Structures are given as structure tokens and as C-alpha cells.
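TASK: fixed-backbone design
INPUT:
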């Protein structure tokens, strides 16, 4: 009996992961509205009753997917702060996001944001993670300012918002035009971002 009881938490975690993996597939393939709970049940190979015991709505599924990425997101920011170049660390993280293993989840970003514009429940569910990401990014940019990578006259919070907007746009463009080979363009993107954010150079004094 003790062995059976001890195995239950593992079974619950396995079931949750099975459902969330199926949800990622369905949301990525069919969009938020096209991915019905019935389709997610079919992808997960379980009954609606079993699924609803874990997740009562699609909003709760999305919130769990976003929260499930938190540890990975924190790991990335740790990598950024430890990198010799903060901006270089950010580009390295962007490269990780666009690997084949992560792109299925990354492409959900534009889909989730588009739905959150008109779905207050979904927006409320994902806002804590969005706020945490903004704070961590602003902190990393403040560190970059201290290292002389970024113009100290720039507001880290404003720059963080700008970089998030650029990142969201890149994800959307990648979905529309995968032939553009975004991963191969990252060195040029890094160079442009560095140029935009670099400290102003002192004007040469005429001789």
C-alpha cells in the first residue's frame, strides 16, 4: 500500500506533462480557438473527464505551460548575467530558443499574446510571468550599463520593453517566413542592437 501511495505523485506529474505536451502540439498546430479540449484529449490519449480533473479550461493549460517554462527562463537569465557580454548572452539565449527542441513552444508566444488582447482571463493568467520576465530583463540591462555595453542615458525598463517587442516580432516573422533562416541572421541582429544601445562616442575635437 505504501508503494502505491508513493507512486501517486509521480503518476500525477506524468499525467500533467502528458496533457501539457499534447496542448503545446494542438495550440501550435490549430491555434488557441482551433485547439478544442476534445482535440487535446485525443492528442493526449485520455478521456475528457481525466483531462478536466487537471485543467478546467484552455486558459489554465496556457498558464501551466507558461509557468512550466519558468525554470528554463530563470536559467537563461542566469546565463545572461554570467556571460562576459550581457548582450552577447541575450543573443545566445535567443539562439537556444530557436533550436528545433524549443521552437514548438516558442511559436506559441504570438498566439498567446493575440488571444490575451481580447481574453481577460488568459491575460490575467500569464501576466505574472510576463512581469517577471520584464523585471529580469531590465536588471540584466542595468548590469550591461554598468559594464559599459549600453548608454547609461537609456532607461533599462524602456529598453527591456523595446527588446521584448523586437523578440516578439522576430518570432512572428519566423513563423510567416521560415525560409528567412532567422537563426543565421542573429549575428546581424546582435550587431544592430549593439549599435542602437552602445554608449555615445565623444565627438572628435577639430585640430
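OUTPUT:
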Amino acid at each position: 500500500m505504501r508503494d502505491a501511495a508513493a507512486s501517486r505523485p509521480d503518476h500525477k506529474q506524468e499525467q500533467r506533462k502528458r496533457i501539457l505536451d499534447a496542448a503545446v502540439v494542438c495550440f501550435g498546430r490549430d491555434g488557441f480557438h482551433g485547439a478544442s479540449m476534445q482535440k487535446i484529449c485525443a492528442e493526449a490519449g485520455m478521456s475528457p473527464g481525466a483531462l478536466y480533473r487537471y485543467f478546467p479550461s484552455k486558459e489554465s493549460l496556457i498558464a501551466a505551460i507558461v509557468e512550466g517554462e519558468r525554470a528554463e527562463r530563470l536559467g537563461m537569465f542566469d546565463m545572461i548575467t554570467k556571460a562576459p557580454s550581457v548582450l552577447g548572452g541575450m543573443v545566445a539565449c535567443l539562439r537556444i530558443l530557436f533550436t528545433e527542441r524549443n521552437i514548438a513552444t516558442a511559436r506559441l508566444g504570438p498566439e498567446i499574446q493575440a488571444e490575451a488582447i481580447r481574453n481577460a482571463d488568459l491575460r490575467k493568467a500569464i501576466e505574472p510571468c510576463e512581469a517577471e520576465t520584464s523585471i529580469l530583463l531590465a536588471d540584466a540591462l542595468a548590469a550591461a550599463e554598468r559594464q559599459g555595453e549600453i548608454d547609461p542615458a537609456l532607461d533599462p525598463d524602456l529598453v527591456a520593453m523595446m527588446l521584448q517587442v523586437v523578440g516578439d516580432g522576430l518570432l512572428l516573422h519566423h513563423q510567416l517566413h521560415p525560409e528567412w533562416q532567422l537563426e543565421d541572421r542573429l549575428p546581424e541582429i546582435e550587431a544592430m542592437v549593439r549599435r542602437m544601445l552602445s554608449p555615445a562616442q565623444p565627438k572628435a575635437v577639430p585640430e
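COMMENT: The longest helix spans residues 2-34.
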